[in-house]
Amino acid sequence: MFEDLFRAAAAKAIEMAVNEGHLIKEDGIILKPATIDLVNEIEEMNRQHLIDMALANNDRELFMQLTN
């Protein structure tokens, strides 16, 4: 019974945090907004690296795909 009460309280706390924007629930996974920002930053760094590689290799087609 105590476990059920604890689970209900935890679920409500998570729901409140999501509603307040402190956490983000996406596809059943709970993440902090900072985690999503970090992933976006890493993806952008990878894209920039690929753009640099396309420029270094004169790969116009890849460059155009990455910059559109």
Write a concise synopsis of the structure shown.
The protein is mostly helical and 68 residues long. It has helices spanning 2-20, 33-56, 60-67; strands spanning 24-26, 29-31.
Question: What does the largest sheet look like?
Answer: 2 strands, antiparallel
Ends apart, CA distance between termini: 56 Å
Rg for CA atoms: 21 Å
What shape does the CA trace take? rod-shaped
Mean pLDDT: 94
Q: State the helical fraction.
A: over 70%
Domain IDEAL: 49-68
InterPro entries: IDEAL_dom
Pfam families: IDEAL
Protein name: IDEAL domain-containing protein
Could you list some keywords that capture this structure?
IDEAL domain-containing protein; rod-shaped; mainly alpha; IDEAL_dom; 68 residues; 3 helices; two-stranded antiparallel ribbon; 75% helix
Give an overview of the whole structure:
- With 68 residues, this protein is mainly α.
- 0% of the residues are buried.
- The N and C termini lie far apart (56 Å).
- Strands 1-2 form a two-stranded antiparallel ribbon.
- It is rod-shaped, with a radius of gyration of 21 Å.
- It has 3 helices and 2 strands.
- The chain has helices spanning 2-20, 33-56, 60-67; strands at residues 24-26, 29-31.
- The model has no long low-confidence stretch (mean pLDDT 94).
Give the SSE map.
Layout: H1 2-20, E1 24-26, E2 29-31, H2 33-56, H3 60-67
Antiparallel strand pairs: 1-2
Helix pairs in contact: 2-3
Domain IDEAL: 49-68
InterPro entries: IDEAL_dom
Pfam families: IDEAL
